[in-house]
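Human: I hope this is not a bother. Would you mind checking the protein record under this note? Thank you for your patience.
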Amino acid sequence: MEATEFRFVGGRSSLDLIATLGKRHVKPIERLADSATAEAWLELAGVLPRGSGARVSLVQLGALRKLRETIYRLVRAAMTGTRFEPSDLAALNAAATAPDLIPQLNGHGAETVKWNSRDPVDAATSSIARDAVLLLARVSAKRIKECEGPDCSLLFLDESQSSRRRWCSMDRCGNLSKIHTYRRRKPQG
């Protein structure tokens, strides 16, 4: 997988942001390598409208990465039943306070909606922080899981009825696991 390929399998924008640092447990891959990739991710994640023209400054890129790691530590703490670090809580809550993007009509129909904000990137970052707040406040930590793929560290929200989902994606890690299991069981001939 290329460093700029993004995975959107977390089920929440805050979990998808965590996935922008791939292979955390093996050899980390930074997928928000620069402002351009951060801009692309924000649009593909749906937190900035496509074609918004918003530019991510180096300061905003650093803030987005910092938010990612703050959310990661808080989610891991929730998953393990550990107390949240007060500094992480303060950072997340502060990031969630920026104003949201404001939809405004320019004419007739959905194609004429314009999203306004003093700074759309700060608004998008704040939207992700609010998503993390709601995730941690409203979702059972038992529903947040880490992919069981040996080379994968993606976190996802298990919304299956049985709560037995094991992989970030059946198409990728689930399929690789099934292939590995099949090859192990297949008699050597």
